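Renewal narrative, Specific Aim 1. Our central claim is that a sequence can be written position by position from structural information alone. The example that follows is taken directly from our test logs and has not been curated for this report. It begins with the structure tokens describing the chain, in the order in which they were read.
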């Protein structure tokens, strides 16, 4: 079912916007987060809300999610996790 049709049929409303202005290309930050990590879903939500889907890519693997996030600066806010929670998953 297409997104717009699902929104209309189920009368759903987005909790936060997933679109943000695209950051100038300066490379990517790469993270690999196990699917069973407690921080995975709050962090992905945070990224979509802060960086927007235009500045990040996800690749699903068997037991982990690879995240490619455009390098750049955005104001950081705490959404139930801290940078120290994410550092163990940083690849590059």
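The sequence written for that structure reads:
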């Amino acid at each position: 079912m297409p997104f717009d049709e699902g929104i209309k049929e189920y009368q759903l409303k987005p909790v936060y916007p997933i679109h943000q202005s695209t950051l100038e290309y300066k490379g990517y930050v790469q993270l690999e987060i196990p699917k069973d990590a407690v921080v995975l879903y709050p962090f992905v939500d945070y990224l979509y809300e802060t960086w927007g889907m235009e500045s990040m890519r996800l690749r699903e693997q068997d037991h982990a999610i690879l995240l490619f996030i455009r390098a750049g600066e955005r104001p950081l806010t705490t959404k139930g996790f801290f940078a120290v929670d994410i550092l163990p998953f940083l690849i590059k």
